[in-house]
Amino acid sequence: MSSSTHNTGATERAEVQQRDVAYARSAPAYGRWISWIVVLVIASNFLWIVATNPNFEWQVVLQWFTEASVLQGLKVTLGLTLVSMVLGTLLGLLLAVWRLSENRLLSSIASLYIWFFRGTPLLVQLIFWYNLSTLFPTLSLTLPWTSLTGASWNTNDLITPLTAAIAGLALNEAAYMAEIIRAGLLSVDNGQVETTQAFGMSRSRALRRIIIPQAMRAIIPPSGNQLISMIKATSLVSVIAMGDLLYSVQAVYNRTFEIVPMLMVAVIWYLLITSVLNVGQSAIERYYARGSRRTVENVKARSPAVRPETRLVHKEEV
Hints:
By secondary structure, the protein is mainly α.
């Protein structure tokens, strides 16, 4: 009798294990392994072809990779990216708040700004700022509709390649960041806004303390993409004689005619910078995503299920 009961319990235990998802096992993914092998073979073959191709002149790449002029151009690229991104983000935040404002004047100004700067190419904007002196030889503070002038400056003294590059990049970036931030603010539940109003918080304090921190989870990913795009967009300032990374590389191959290896120097540096930014973006995303995702381990820890063996024991006892 006991042997029969034991066999029955073992059978029921096996059936329970077969039905319980905790004991589920996925089928062997042979197709996935085959696809991985095919991709690795193709990728390794491509890398071998590139590494052994003498036309890339890898010895020239190594020679110029850390050369002083190239590193100076790299510093200019990073500096332009940092300054333009900070200014563009701050101005974009202001434009986003204006765009969501109930004040029709502020909303219209923000919409017009975004329409213009998103609708014209960045290269055209850079060239325009660099040649601003052809339209306005002098910049002055005057009383509207009068000839009274408070101060005046020579435009060529103000608009240098550096200031033209910062103005073009920052103002263009502000239009895109305004829409990104606006989308992030709209992603916050309207109940949060109503709660801040119920507590008597001012709009600026509610944005700073409640709404923006919650919106960051939706703002960070596209902002990271914009930062990476900004790194690459700085290469356009070479047309206004700004000594960025690409301009420095071009200055070298214009003398040595080693076009391909010098371009590879720029490509490798750009890839290294964007790779570091990708790692930083992922870390920031994880920081703002805290508490928003539940892992399987957390779910099991919060709601532990009764083990099948325990259920069987209770059934046998009964």
